[in-house]
Write a structure and sequence with these properties.
Number of strands: 25
Structural class: mainly beta
Strand order of the largest sheet: 1-4-7-10-13-16-19-22-25
Oligomer: single chain
Largest sheet: 9 strands, parallel
Distance between the termini: 41 Å
Radius of gyration: 16 Å
Number of helices: 0
């Protein structure tokens, strides 16, 4: 299925209000003014799909525990990967208790993935490539478990931006490839791995220059 904003009037591709179990497979969301997929208190699965030129590819909102998981990509299945490119944000999640983000590519967005305010997530085996602000934002998730594992950041201005209280965060085996294309305005700037305030543990990370 394709959701193309051909006349410039489409603000949403699909909105899902507490309906669980919908599968989005091999879909395209192109140039949507606001949000490609909006799952509100809903568990969905997104595979083999492309989000290109939207304000937000996926904006997931949780106000209560959901039945099942909100899955973007399938763990251990590289063919299930989704591509988020040229969006303001690839995925923006607030309050989702079972967010699973596996095997995806986030390329040339403003930022790839934002996990904001009391989510519980697993983010694993994703590639963040040339997003102009940063790859992953983790903000104010308190003591709730957020596992960020085995992701690769290529030429990100900021690889991970971790803000506020994230005492439940566990960050393991990230690779940061520092090959940023310098411009005069960024002459003395390299990509960075930025941690602010409280997290649980950060281990086995690699910076390649």
């Amino acid at each position: 299925c394709k959701f193309n904003n051909t006349d410039g009037t489409a603000n949403y591709g699909v909105t899902d209000w507490a309906v669980n179990g919908i599968l989005f497979n091999e879909c395209e969301f192109n140039n949507i003014n606001k949000i490609g997929i909006l799952p509100y208190d809903a568990s969905i699965t997104v595979t083999k799909s492309i989000f290109d030129g939207n304000n937000q590819g996926i904006n997931a909102i949780g106000t209560m525990p959901i039945t099942g998981e909100l899955k973007v990509g399938i763990e251990g299945n590289a063919e299930s990967k989704n591509t988020f490119k040229n969006n303001y944000s690839g995925i923006y999640s607030t309050g989702v208790d079972k967010l699973r983000v596996f095997q995806n590519t986030f390329k040339e967005n403003k930022f790839g993935l934002a996990i904001i305010d009391l989510n519980s997530s697993i983010v694993k085996n994703n590639t963040f490539d040339h997003n102009t602000y940063g790859g992953t934002i983790l903000e104010n998730n308190n003591t709730i478990s957020n596992q960020i594992i085995c992701n690769t950041y290529v030429s990100e201005f900021i690889g991970m931006d971790i803000k506020g209280n994230n005492q439940g965060a566990y960050i393991n085996t990230q690779t940061f490839q520092s090959v940023y294309d310098k411009t005069p305005s960024l002459e003395n700037t390299l990509p960075c791995f930025l941690i602010i305030f409280q997290i649980q543990e950060v281990i086995y990370n690699t910076l390649i220059q």
